[in-house]
Amino acid sequence: EYNNKYISDEKIDRDIIDFNSGVPDLEKFPRSFWSKFLRYSFLDMPEYLLDYGRPQGLFDLRLTLSNFLLKTKGIKCYPDQIIILSGSSEGFLIIGKLLKPYYNNVIIEDLVYNGIQKIFKSLDIKFYPIPVDDKGIRSDLIPENIKNHFIIVTPSHQFPTGSVLPIQRRVKLIKLARNINTYIIENDYDSEFRYTGQQISSLHLLDPEIVIHIGTFSESLYPSLRLGYMVLPESLVKDCCKIKESCGLFTPSIYQLALSNFIKEGYFERHINKMKKLYKGKRKILIDKLKDEFKSSIKISGDSIGLYIVVEFKNVIFTDQILKKLLDNKVRVYRVEDHSIIKGKHNNKIILGYGNLGTGEIEEGIKRIKEILK
Ligand SMILES: Cc1ncc(COP(=O)(O)O)c(C=O)c1O
């Protein structure tokens, strides 16, 4: 028995209702189950797993993932084609470092998660932004003879618009990448939570030779777990592992092993199914409340997958002052504009993440937004 108390220096204002898009329901995470997996995995694992381990990650988890990815996303791959990551962000960093000497530039969606922009900027990779619409990246706007570019896309659920890339655009993208002799990074951030429409299979299936598929457990489990994976052509694995090792980015073995067992014993699937029902309920309450408060002055999109929606306002510009006023009224929202490359086109849209909010908080949060925007 121990009696340690958690000491914090973080000033978190618990009265603020935060519509952050990247956080799942932390309260509903099955901590006691998970801690059993951690405990038993730790006690049972061979002693050598206390050593650094291999940068590629545990074979046990890679084997589990190769079966799991076939079942859930239709991805066919060998465990040797998988690298375990400490979150998908690490994958963007490793691939950026790997490709930069050959391709100095990236064809990138505009809009794109600003965390990815920061990673590529830190590597001095230049952007060739391509607009997105309600069907994802406008692949028809990519010049067919473009040179020295790799590509990054979010086909299953574009961030932040929430659109899904249709098969015609996928095929066009693959053909183009083949012609210009490059790689496509498929960022599959949150496709586990699909509420309507059919599951669209991964871009990876269309051409496993050139698509690097990156996934994460930040939304499906919890962000501080820092576990993700990438599936890549076998020819790239060795160099990626060298980069991971040279940066000291080893992923802790114990979490890998616990996750592998969690998936193998069926708890992961059960958890996703349970959470999907929960999120579906929250999503409905959010949309109903928005329609109730704002009627026809808003347009809602991106709501078929994931833990957020996008709301476009007819008569509001989300300036810094408006965000400050909202925050003073104890509600935090996120601008679509903050994920743009070419600035100035998305100032009237916000991202509302609902994963980590209770139903009462969602309703109260929208009420607080209305009080300021009325
Ligand atoms: C679209 C998108 N991709 C990737 C990430 C990074 O995820 P990870 O926690 O796996 O590094 C985020 C995080 O919010 C995201 O929104």
From TrEMBL:
InterPro entries: Aminotransferase_I/II_large, HTH_trans_reg/aminotransferase, PyrdxlP-dep_Trfase, PyrdxlP-dep_Trfase_major
Coiled coil: none
Domain Aminotransferase class I/classII large: 15-335
Any one GO molecular-function label of the UniProt entry: pyridoxal phosphate binding
Family matches, as SUPFAM superfamilies: PLP-dependent transferases
Endpoints of the signal sequence: none
One Pfam family hit: Aminotran_1_2
PANTHER family to which the protein is assigned, alphabetical: HTH-TYPE TRANSCRIPTIONAL REGULATORY PROTEIN GABR (PTHR46577:SF1)
Protein name: Aminotransferase class I/classII large domain-containing protein
Organism (species): marine sediment metagenome
